[in-house]
Amino acid sequence: MKRTGISRRSFLTGLSATAATVTILPQSVFGANDKVNLACIGCGGKGDSDINDAVSRGANIVALCDANEGPVNGQAKRFPNARKFSDFRKLFDAMEKDIDAVTVSTPDHTHFPASMAAIMLGKHAFCQKPLVHTVWEARRIAQAAREKKVATQMGIQGHANDGARQLCEWIWGGAIGQVTEVHYCTNRPGGWWPQPVTRPTDTPPVPANLDWDCWLNAAPARPYHPCYLPAKWRGWWDFGCGALGDIGCHVMDAAFWALDFRVPESIEAEVSGLNPEGGPKWSIVTYQFPARGPLPPVKLKWYDGVSWDNKNGWEKEKGPPRPKELPPEQKLPGETYCLIYGDKGTILQDFYCGGPRVIPEAKMKEVQELKIPKTLPRAPRTPAPHMEEYLQACKGGPPAGANFEYAASLSEMEVLGNLTVRLGKKIEWDAKNMKVTNLPEANKYLRCEPRKGWEQYYTGADVPPQPEPQVGPPAK
Q1: Which string of DSSP letters, residue by residue, matches 182-211?
Q2: Is there a contact between 195 and 233 (Cβ–Cβ < 8 Å)?
Q3: Which of 403, 370, 374 is closest to 177 using CA atoms?
């Protein structure tokens, strides 16, 4: 296998962290028939599919928690023996000894405190993407998972696909030479949730089935309004991470894994207009990555919120240029995709890092003839391989692929992009000291101040620096 200079240790970072990050538990810890006793925080929407995935892989649902009583009651019909809660703090107070692990499938602003509540008690944690809301949270949650030696997984199912591993192997095997530029694009937000947003002035009553205080949790207090939920929270900076948080963790994953995009040196954004409350109508974010050992500098461009034309593709003024290698008759793979440009070829990949293709097809045939070996272990071939990885890790198996060590770095890259979207200015990033060096006012967005009553999840030792990319000769 040809190598581009990334060490084998870096190759496997996305597949597993060090063995020390997993606690090997005795069989007796788990429930009947060796099932993981699972508490589900967030029961509607994505929570429902995460519960389905967990049950399909053999988990035992023992607790249901959601600030909205409706989804909890709906799930309780399926799991009548599971206890119900609206506040995850009360869940852990009441059931600390009865649960082995959690799933966190909530709005973005709840990901960190709910996951940290579990980790601090030594419980395994599965959390939906993006893992965190700020850079500080990314550093802290990875640190806490290492210290507690718990099994973790972020909910990016594409990381368990063969396509993500195949893309890594192609790039490491020299299929497209040295990569110098990567483009990502998505039509979101668009019709998925409203952006830009304006804070409402009216104060309708809180629905009887909603615990508004628990829904807010650590976020700044504000009156309830239906413009925030369900799903609409993504467009508000206090609650969501916009399109970068929603889609970035999916479509950016494989190239991030293959090219070690952990430490950008600068980021800048072009946006439709600045808004202190939430994301813009569209944005174009440009990351500059320095050379990493023998790897050349890379420019990464992210496009979101642009119009999609089924015939012609992205709106020309704001979308990425159509790759010249793509024949006129060949369509792009839907409204979210990735383009990876090397000096010897281009890879086109879809939403969940599946189905990578070298373009044009003549070049694809050349790559197939190289017979680049499969050097990465494949995930289990099940209906929900990412959940299978997580539950097996909970039982002492290998670390899950998108464990928090990996996921925190991926999420950090995305929330840094949001920082420039909020400011509309270029930032220069000192990863080691977790500081924006050219724009001091940007540093206030690196960490949030939790609301009173939620501070316990935002304390702890000073967080460590983001690890430098692991480049150099293969580890022996």
Answers
A1: EEEEE--STTSS--S-------PPPPTTB-
A2: no
A3: 370
First to last CA, the chain: 15
Q: Whole-angstrom Cα distance, residue 173 to residue 1?
A: 6
Q: Are strands 101-104 and 37-41 parallel, antiparallel or unpaired?
A: parallel
Q: Coil, helix or strand for 83?
A: strand
Closest CA to 417 of 292, 329, 288: 288
Does 27 score more than 70 pLDDT? Answer: no
From CA 359, how far away is CA 176, in angstroms rounded? 10
pLDDT > 60? residue 188? yes
pTM, entire model: 0.91
C-alpha 88/C-alpha 66 separation (Å) is 8
* Residue 19: pLDDT band with limits 50, 70, 90: very low
Give Cα separations from 342 to 5, 23, 63, 171 (angstroms). 15, 40, 49, 9
What structural domains and CATH numbers belong to the chain? 14-158+383-405 (3.40.50.720)
Higher pLDDT, 113 or 32: 113
Question: Is the predicted pLDDT of residue 67 greater than 80, yes or no?
Answer: yes
Burial class (CB in 10 A: 0-12, 13-18, 19+), 265: middle
**3-class secondary-structure state, position 284:** strand
* Integer Cα distance of 344 and 367 in angstroms: 11
How many angstroms separate the CA atoms of 235 and 278, rounded? 5
Which residues, listed in sequence order, are joined to residue 61 by a DSSP beta bridge? 38
Token duo for residue 444: 């206030």
Which residues have C-beta within 8 Å of that of residue 77, sequence separation ≥ 6? none
Burial class (CB in 10 A: 0-12, 13-18, 19+), 345: buried
Residue 341: pLDDT over 90: yes
Question: Quick count: other Cβ atoms within 10 Å of Cβ 355?
Answer: 16
- The SS3 call for residue 340 is strand
Residue 385, both tokens:
């391989």
Candidates 31, 28, 70; CA nearest to 48 is: 70
